[in-house]
Fold:
Amino acid sequence: MTVQLGLDTFGDVSSDATGAPVPHAQVIRDLVEQAVLADRIGIDAIGIGEHHRDDYAVSAPDIVLAAIAARTERILLGTAVTVLSSDDPVRVYERFATLDALAPGRAEVTMGRGSFTESFPLFGLDLGDYERLFEEKLDLWAALQGRARCPGRARSAGRCRGRGCSRRPPPAASPPGSGSAARRSRWCAPPATASR
Structure:
């Protein structure tokens, strides 16, 4: 068994020497530089989380990971977590397949419902649909990877057949939280846990 050492971040907004918050753009640039250094010194992985709040700078981890991919050679590029409940699984699939094309074998995606729920009202979603949206979108993600049993609740699974979803999928880990063991067994996904 090989042990890997990785770093996870949400792009937390810190304060500068005067106590003022560091601008989001600077936090993101600093994060890219930190990942470049991590790659150079032998850190195995970087995971970047998605948030849509003022206290975290990264709302599009796949874009930040692409910038890191362009400047690194070996570090694994993953999310710490992609909020699948409020995103489109086809678009997530395409973005991470593109990242995998830029950095072959280094792209990984960890999907979850989101422990913070700010993305639901932001994207016009009803928080009452929290579980249903996640289940449906996880089913569609699995169908895109050829893992699904074609469950009836993946209503939109047919919309991508034959339309640009043929890119190689990146590895995916199962989401943390209640019921994740059942989801892992259903889709043969490796476990992931969230802790801070």
The two ends are 25 Å apart (CA to CA). The helical segments are 24-41, 61-71, 89-102, 119-122, 130-144, 180-187. Confidence is low (pLDDT under 50) at residues 148-166.
